[in-house]
TrEMBL record:
It is found in: Membrane. Pfam families: Zip (PF02535). GO terms for biological process: zinc ion import across plasma membrane. It comes from the Eukaryota. It is a multi-pass membrane protein. The chain crosses the membrane at residues 35-58, 70-90, 110-133, 214-236, 278-298, 310-332, 353-372. Its main location: membrane. This is Uncharacterized protein. Keywords: Ion transport, Membrane, Transmembrane, Transmembrane helix, Transport.
Amino acid sequence: MSALTTLLSPGNFVELFIREEDTCTADNSYNGDHFGARISAIFVVLIASAFGSFFPVLSSKHSFLRLPPACFFVAKFFGSGVIIATAFIHLLQPANENLSNDCLGYPFDIYPMAFGITLIVLMLMFFLELIAYRWIEAKLSNQSVDSNEPHTHSHFGETSMYVHDEGHDTEHSHTHGHSNAEYNIEDMFSEISEDIEKQSTGSSELDSAYAAQILNVFVLEFGIVFHSVFVGLTLSCSGDEFISLYIVVVFHQMFEGLGLGTRVACVEWPASKRWTPWLLCLGYTFCTPIAIAIGIGVRNSYPPGSRRALITNGVFDSVSAGILIYTGCIELMAHEFLFSDEFKGPGGFKKMIWAYIVMCVGAGLMALLGRWA
């Protein structure tokens, strides 16, 4: 027992992950070639990132620039596919590659750490969203979190979409079945009260939906930005593969920006927050170019193959993968296709098929980029 206690002591446990002595590569593959192109990558990636993230916001109904609705439709679902492919191909796979490197040793050689971390983050995301929804709804309705009164807001739309309330129908039928002679002043005030209550409930649900969208957008930005920083560092310190990686990163950042920008543009931003979407897009636009500039500055000393770098990149990629998998599958696929009103009514099925095709194209192109980076 004493030996086990010593092994699991805080100092020894941390040393398992960050110990200095290891057999991992202590340098990088930088060879000094194409230095001018590496400098140009800062500005080219900046432009590509800006175009990808700002285009959906500019084409949305909230922008001063009015583009055809088809532009936003394509950008929205193309970006959804990009986010889903990014999670699996550009985050989870590299994370697994980093955290399963033979040089890391124990405990990485006995367990698939990347998948474990991704699973933990996915479950944690779901739990935090459950708590956030309960807190938001309780706050909006001035009720405690332990209230037993039902709430109707969820990812699955309004309860009335799939639950048939026979009691309500009966009451509604009874109330409006009165003849004019039986209709009295008490019935009139009762109906007015019901209308006010419905309007208040609708307002609370809109506020709850807005708060949920804000939460999802900021979480998505967090996951994408962390991933983009490591993309910039990798590009600037790469060796013989720099040219192919350069081209891939430009498209990668543009497509990923489309995914983030469409989510930002979908939020009904109030007048007091009208600059928030532009700031979010601006943050994404600059994160990778700044990382490229930092990477050029430390190109001779940054060791991407070292134990610390492998673990750091692997852990952050795993966390980002969990965030994007949850967001992609729940928020973008299930919510947008199954439980929204966008594809209802005449022509809705055809529109849904086109949206699905566009999403598959986005996922396919982003997955194809994984062949090179």
